Amino acid sequence: QVWQIRLDMHLLNHDGNITDAASIAGIVALCHFRRPDVSVQGEEVTVYTPEERDPVPLSIHHMPICVSFAFFHQGTYLLVDPTEREERVMDGLLVIAMNKHHEICTIQSSGVVMLLQDQILRCSKITAVKVGEITELIQKALENDQKARKEGGKFGFAESIPNQRITAFKMESAAVDTSDVEEQAGEIIAKADPPSEVFASPVLHTPGTAQIGEGIESSWGDLEESEKEEAAEEEGESEAAAFECEKVETEDTSTLKETKNEPIVLSDSEEEEVVILEPQELPRKTR
Amino acid sequence: AAPQGRLLCGPGLRRSGAGLLVTKCGLLRHRPAGGGAYWVDSQQKRYVPVKGDHVIGIVTAKAGDVFRLDVGGSEPASLSYLAFEGATKRNRPNVQVGDLIYGQFVVANKDMEPEMVCIDSSGKSSGMGIIGQDGFLFKVSLGLIRKLLAPKCEIIQELSQLYPFELVLGMNGRIWVKAKTVQQTLIIVNILEACEYMTAEQRRQALAKLSGN
């Protein structure tokens, strides 16, 4: 003959992560439960009523507690103990059940996320910390209850509601301190690497000359010179600049050849930095 | 003297023999109109499908000619593709998994799987159908929905002074809101959620602060 025990869980209200809450409720209920005392003498089994002998607790060897992790963006972001809204949009969920001796009892992974080994190790470390805290809380609550019963004080579910020890229908949302958000944001921006040089369009080779696209080599040599000189004068450039521009003009063919090898930035690109890979730089993949 | 006419026994009450039994905890309400009606005004968040209720459902699967919708009950509801206005075998409605549907129950009892339609008895859609893109769906308690659906609800009138927005209320505790920008939408969502616990005075203060900004 054995004892059979049944645990029914009624969900009154939730804001996500029912697994964790239910695991805590279940294990606490089992630890708190008292069964009638029994004495066995040979074949005779006597079951004592609670009035005859104090009921005895179940022999619970360890307290496994579940901790859930929600993943977003293919494992980039990790949230411990997700709320209802976070659960609805998460990519994947990892549930680790552990006891206070850091023994993993259950690992369950669901969703469409692929996890790396070090991610799972990190999650198990977080679980160890959380489970330690929760187990301590449970022990303290059980002790308080036992003390209250011994001293004849009030105890139980109905007594806990008015003291706000059980959140009845509503939980105060945690206030987020946004007082120094601007400073923090400023710090982050200051510490970050400065953005790479923006290749403005058109590309300026020297003051007074600009290049948009490649273009065909001009056959109107004289006209271009005078055009560019006029442009330089309009911009208020010095004669030295104009002289340079002439020099560039004579070296036109050579610069054109050079620019053909350089990455040419065309104006319409939205990218700040356009990197064109040279064929010989690409790593050769061996099959 | 007892009023003439049939006395209606509403939600939370059940006839047993000659008397009435109360099956839910809450406030007993009475409406003298008609023959008189008694019901228990209870607060709960879990929805049980009731025939005739207009609800917001989320499409979870397409099984042949029938869509499976999650309405927050114990079972998914079924919705035939022909139950839309102007739908024929050739002209199917464009419903994808994950879409929101506003419809009403034609079959909802404890023995059968609930069935929904998006047309009323005359074949017109009368506001039901696929709810558009964007917007935000969230859950509240059933009591708040009933309060918001009451005629001349103060909360909705005060909110409409704030920003223009679209609102769909499902009797299964789901509300869909869409305003011009994401921020406005979220502000309305937060106010509606907080309305459950705020008094009328606190609500007016909060709205005054928002419209002042």
TrEMBL record, chain A:
Xref: Pfam families: RNase_PH, RNase_PH_C
Coiled coil residues, start to end: none
Domain of life, per lineage: Eukaryota
SUPFAM superfamilies attached to this UniProt entry: Ribonuclease PH domain 2-like, Ribosomal protein S5 domain 2-like
GO terms for biological process, alphabetical: exonucleolytic trimming to generate mature 3'-end of 5.8S rRNA from tricistronic rRNA transcript (SSU-rRNA, 5.8S rRNA, LSU-rRNA); nuclear mRNA surveillance; nuclear polyadenylation-dependent rRNA catabolic process; rRNA catabolic process; TRAMP-dependent tRNA surveillance pathway; U1 snRNA 3'-end processing; U4 snRNA 3'-end processing; U5 snRNA 3'-end processing
Compositional bias per record (Basic and acidic residues), positions renumbered to this chain: 244-261
GO cellular component terms, semicolon-separated: cytoplasmic exosome (RNase complex); nuclear exosome (RNase complex)
Annotated spans, Disordered: 207-287
Residue ranges annotated for the Exoribonuclease phosphorolytic domain, each copy included: 2-36, 62-126
Biased composition (Acidic residues): 222-238
Keywords: Cytoplasm, rRNA processing
Subcellular compartments: Cytoplasm; Nucleus
GO MF annotations, alphabetized: mRNA 3'-UTR AU-rich region binding
Sequence similarity: Belongs to the RNase PH family.
Name of this protein: EXOS9 protein
Organism in which the protein naturally occurs: Prunella fulvescens
UniProtKB/TrEMBL annotation, chain B:
Main location: cytoplasm
Gene3D superfamilies for the chain: 2.40.50.100, K Homology domain, type 1 (3.30.1370.10), Nucleic acid-binding proteins (2.40.50.140)
GO cellular component terms given for this protein: cytoplasmic exosome (RNase complex); nuclear exosome (RNase complex); nucleolus
Domain K Homology: 135-183
Molecular function per GO: RNA binding
Subcellular location: Cytoplasm; Nucleus, Nucleolus
Keywords: Cytoplasm, Exosome, Nucleus, RNA-binding, rRNA processing
Domain Exosome complex component RRP40 N-terminal: 2-43
One of the GO BP terms on file: regulation of gene expression
Similarity remark: Belongs to the RRP40 family.
Protein name: Exosome complex component RRP40
Organism per entry: Prunella fulvescens (Brown accentor)
Phylogenetic placement of the source organism: Eukaryota, Metazoa, Chordata, Craniata, Vertebrata
